[in-house]
């Protein structure tokens, strides 16, 4: 007689064979299915929209994208322009940003506070989310926009098939700003003769950040190249400590940290973000690029109006406004006032993404051929918002 | 397993027939080993295949969760091109250095505190308080102490390993039966002989269990630490590629860390077997 226990024990024999057969079948099926499928790609469509002239936004509301340089005044409309055009159906939008306390996010924060988006029929929610986490969500349409920059992660994502475009700029530094690369001055040397080859640089943001582009340029001016440098990524407070303590030879110091070394002869400012060339801003995914372009234009209209109304010039001259900024950015008003106003700029310069991609390749953080500008940038939305016909 | 035959009423006796384990113990054991080995291979393989299928059929987004074939191919390319090894070597160096320092210091202090009640009384409350501090929180302290470079990374691994080894050594020494010590004393054992012939053999198996747990934790903590303040290493590779949205590279790093952890832990287990042949044998995974 064969008991159940015996049967179970005997059953152990054919199991490996069964498992192997199942495994082989699964492998064949997987390989077969792998071969006959590919990742779908949606197309982005912001073309063929009617662009009407906008009151208050004349010639100065558009600058030739090819124009570069510190002397270029950013595009501006009149105060309160472009006027809001409420969407027929109100729309909720989620915008991700890696920080809510940085000054370049202030136009967004002020737009929300002053109801500029509400006037467009938009209910905007700002969410703090780092770019690598936000990218897939943006591509899937789970968030509508990302307030960041065309970093290497974005280029890699678009290269991998994400339908994302850089649709508006954010700022360029004031000519008097000294936010950028600082180096220790060796005894007996002058700032211009500092050699950076093989030196260690401390940064809050890594080589995949847009600062790679100005850094690439500055480093080349000082006899080095990105690959010959050693980068040490550090926390915001640690960058200055490491720099002052000699842990790193140079550091990329942001606002207002550079004020701590400004005027000290032991340190020299080598250069910063190019004047007149924004390196970040709004990135849209398919939800605003193709599914609901009206909402995308409305969002940029609210943003541009906020710049024209509150950030058109040296906005830090107004003490009450600085107090408001301090409140929304959760910073000390004195700290905000200690550095010059940013030049808020919604436009994107021609060739910026080419220059960024070159620096990413030099730093070894992107692979493959550089993407053409049209795969990364779409100026049509802000052109429509200010009524500019290309 | 044996089998019982139902007795015929007229016989009035039970007949116990030997099961396959008793009748053919070697072949039963072989079958069991084969079954366990098959399961150990088939289950992960099936999961990997399912992942591959899900990526290929777009049930998951392959740009975010790359297919295993893409990870394998990328890992292979990086290994062949020599791009992977500097990071593996950097992590390995930090883990080995920190592990060695942490194990030796943890063992010595555990032994001292276990053997000398006054030292235990003096240090135990403080050590208990330090034990519960998340070791990663000490990284800024180590950065200030040792500056940038290898120092903070090695110190962090050493601090983590130290507590695992210290606590298991202390517990093991305290658990040595009083009779063993008395026997040593009766035979006139001095301090060194008491340590060499009584405390060491009695405590080493437990200490090695702690050391094995610490081996896994050492890899875990170095990955976290390298993600914060290191210019290279597998942790840096994982988090850097995550920041650059190079998910295939990120998964290559994760797989490398998993392999490194398993190899390191198995080596410590092997060392344990060699060093403590008298200890109950840990026969490893899949060997019930």
UniProtKB/TrEMBL annotation, chain A:
Species for this entry: Streptomyces axinellae
One Pfam family cited in the UniProt record for this chain: NMT1
PANTHER family: ALIPHATIC SULFONATES-BINDING PROTEIN-RELATED
The protein's name: SsuA/THI5-like domain-containing protein
Annotated InterPro entries: SsuA/THI5 (IPR015168)
Disordered: annotated segments: 65-86
UniProt signal peptide: 1-19
UniProtKB keywords: Signal
Domain SsuA/THI5-like: 104-258
Automatic annotation (TrEMBL), chain B:
Transmembrane segments: 34-54, 96-118, 130-148, 154-177, 198-224, 244-264
Ranges of biased composition (kind: Basic and acidic residues): 10-28
Keyword Plastid among record annotations: no
Keywords, sorted A to Z: Cell membrane, Membrane, Transmembrane, Transmembrane helix, Transport
Mode of membrane association: Multi-pass membrane protein
Keyword check for Kinase: no
Family annotation (Pfam families): BPD_transp_1
UniProt-annotated location(s): Cell membrane
Region (Disordered) location: 1-29
Main location: membrane
InterPro entries per UniProt: MetI-like, MetI-like_sf
PROSITE patterns noted in UniProt: ABC_TM1
PANTHER family for the chain: ALKANE SULFONATE ABC TRANSPORTER-RELATED, MEMBRANE SUBUNIT, TAURINE TRANSPORT SYSTEM PERMEASE PROTEIN TAUC
The protein, known as: Aliphatic sulfonate ABC transporter permease SsuC
Organism of derivation: Streptomyces axinellae
């Amino acid at each position: 007689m064969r008991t159940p226990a015996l049967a179970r024990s005997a059953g152990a024999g054919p199991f490996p064979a069964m498992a192997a057969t199942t495994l082989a079948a699964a492998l064949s099926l997987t390989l077969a299915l792998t071969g006959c499928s590919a990742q779908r790609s949606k197309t982005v469509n912001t073309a063929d929209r009617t662009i009407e002239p906008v009151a208050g936004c004349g010639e100065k509301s558009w600058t030739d994208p090819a124009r570069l340089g510190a002397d270029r005044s950013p595009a501006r409309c009149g105060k309160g322009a472009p006027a809001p055009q409420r969407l027929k159906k109100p729309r909720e939008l989620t915008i991700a940003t890696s920080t809510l306390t940085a000054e370049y996010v202030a136009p967004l924060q002020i737009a929300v506070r002053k109801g500029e988006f509400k006037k467009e029929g938009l209910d905007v929610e700002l969410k703090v989310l780092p770019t690598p986490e936000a990218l897939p969500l943006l591509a899937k349409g789970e968030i509508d926009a990302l307030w960041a920059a065309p970093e290497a992660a974005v280029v890699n994502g678009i290269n991998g098939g994400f339908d994302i475009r850089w649709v508006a700029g954010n700022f360029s530094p004031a000519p008097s700003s000294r936010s950028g690369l600082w180096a220790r001055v060796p005894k007996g040397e002058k700032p211009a003769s500092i050699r950076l080859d093989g030196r260690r640089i401390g940064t809050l943001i890594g080589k995949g950040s847009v600062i790679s582009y100005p850094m690439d340029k500055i480093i080349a001016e000082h006899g080095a190249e990105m690959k010959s440098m050693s980068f040490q990524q550090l926390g915001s407070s640690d960058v200055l400590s490491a720099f002052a303590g000699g842990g790193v030879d140079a550091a990329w110091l942001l606002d207002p940290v550079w004020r701590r070394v400004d005027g000290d002869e032991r340190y020299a400012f080598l250069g910063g973000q190019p004047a007149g060339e924004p390196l970040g801003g709004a990135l849209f995914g398919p939800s605003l690029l193709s599914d609901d372009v009206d909402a995308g234009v409305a969002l940029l209209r609210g943003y541009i109006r906020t710049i024209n109304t509150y950030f058109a010039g040296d906005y830090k001259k107004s003490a009450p406004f600085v107090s408001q900024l301090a409140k929304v950015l959760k910073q000390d008003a004195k700290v905000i006032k200690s550095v010059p106003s940013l030049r808020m700029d919604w436009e994107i310069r021609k060739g910026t993404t080419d220059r960024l991609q070159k620096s990413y390749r030099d730093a070894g953080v992107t692979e493959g051929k550089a993407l053409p500008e049209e795969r990364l940038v779409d100026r049509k939305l802000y052109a429509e918002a200010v009524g500019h016909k290309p | 397993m044996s089998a019982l035959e139902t007795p015929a009423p007229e016989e009035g006796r039970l007949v116990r027939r030997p099961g396959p384990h008793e009748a053919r113990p070697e072949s039963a054991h072989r079958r069991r080993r084969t079954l366990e080995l098959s399961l150990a291979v088939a289950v992960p393989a099936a999961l990997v295949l399912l992942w591959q299928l899900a990526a290929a059929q777009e049930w998951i987004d392959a740009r975010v969760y790359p297919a295993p074939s893409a990870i394998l191919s990328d890992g292979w390319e990086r290994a062949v091109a020599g791009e992977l090894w500097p990071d593996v070597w950097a992590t390995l160096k930090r883990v080995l250095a920190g592990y060695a320092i942490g194990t030796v210091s943890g063992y010595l202090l555990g032994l001292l505190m276990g053997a000398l009640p006054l030292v235990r009384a003096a240090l135990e409350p403080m050590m208990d308080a330090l034990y519960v501090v998340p070791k990663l929180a000490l990284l800024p302290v180590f950065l200030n102490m040792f500056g940038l470079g290898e120092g903070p990374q090695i110190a962090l691994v050493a601090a983590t390993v130290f507590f695992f080894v210290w606590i298991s050594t202390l517990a093991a020494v305290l658990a040595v039966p009083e009779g063993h010590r008395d026997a040593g004393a009766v035979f006139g054992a001095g301090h060194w002989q008491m340590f060499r012939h009584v405390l060491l053999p009695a405590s080493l198996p437990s200490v090695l269990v702690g050391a094995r747990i610490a081996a896994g934790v050492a890899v875990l903590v170095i990955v976290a630490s390298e993600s914060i303040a290191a210019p290279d290493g597998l942790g840096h590779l994982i988090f850097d590629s995550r920041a650059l949205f190079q998910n295939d590279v990120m998964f290559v790093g994760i797989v490398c860390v998993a392999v490194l952890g398993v190899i390191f832990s198995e080596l410590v287990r092997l060392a344990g077997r060699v060093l403590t042949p008298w200890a109950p044998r840990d026969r490893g995974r899949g060997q019930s």
